[in-house]
């Protein structure tokens, strides 16, 4: 800004001189300093008309610049440090000055910025002004912005409803293990040992996606029609959202050894831990029916205890770190634990994917390489401060609107007063953008002694 204004001043000076005396080379140091002084004088004249109300001890130096007197005039230091230049806070020149110093000093913080500016300038409400400018810095936002968070969600029905063991399973990495490409044998071995699952939850690993794509190529309508085999339902969690399929402790573990041991899934892997074999000759149908009834009763009892002791403790808790919901079209950073923040890609939100309860927990993002799906915990909005400022301004405007008294609007049956100037000319109603209606427009009138007021009907103006 200073250099542009210096070129403007040179152009004005060249226009006043002869062609042979015009300057054509690069700007000199004196021209740049003169441009800065001119801008400071213009800024102080426009934004600081009433100096006495600022409660500062000020004076005007030889360059006609307003300065502030400090208490360190007896110190052996520079004069600009004794008498800093006074600048307003709500000024574009002040904002550009703060941004320039901020970039030259490697995006320094608020305290360092305030110390650097204090070497030459004294900004009114400096800390608040510097903080507002630094919050708008795009590069600083990449390192300071926090991720979004979603509200608590209920567990899926597959995890709380009664079903057979291994009817609904989840697959996760258990590394470090050597993984081979022949995934079909691993799935067949699992089905042979634990039974065929109905639903499989897993992440977006290449081996799981490959299994899903290969199984999707089969004609399941024909398989279901000719056999009793049903298609396995694959449910993938969002990419990079490991907590969607993670494990957690089932219940409280007591330190008293006399209390009952809580049930775990490992206890159901092997149904019978007894090593001895019952003599088949001693068994009959009556004993088998009795054992079957006992097992059914025991299963019902275990499910009741599971419902009372575990499911009743699953209460949703409020997330205190929740900021707000994402917005379509907002620019965000895609977080990655394996990369530095400087290498995180920038994306735009193009779709909000709600859950069963209507809460937004996943979003679809558009990057320069395509579209991806990520949970809200992995996106870092870059427009948080702008949105917060706009919400604050809207709130302040609503408060000011409520506090002001509405003006009385003229009734359509009321008469309209014509307005005349001191010379006797009729003042016509402005028609710009048609913002006001003829029936509710109020004119300010002059006294009757100056021929400024007489009443006419509203239809006379339309003619």
UniProtKB/TrEMBL annotation:
Pfam families: DUF5641, Integrase_H2C2. GO terms for molecular function: nucleic acid binding. Residues 303-382 form the DUF5641 domain. Residues 93-145 form the Integrase zinc-binding domain. InterPro entries: DUF5641, Integrase_H2C2, RNaseH-like_sf, RNaseH_sf. It comes from the Eukaryota. This is Integrase catalytic domain-containing protein.
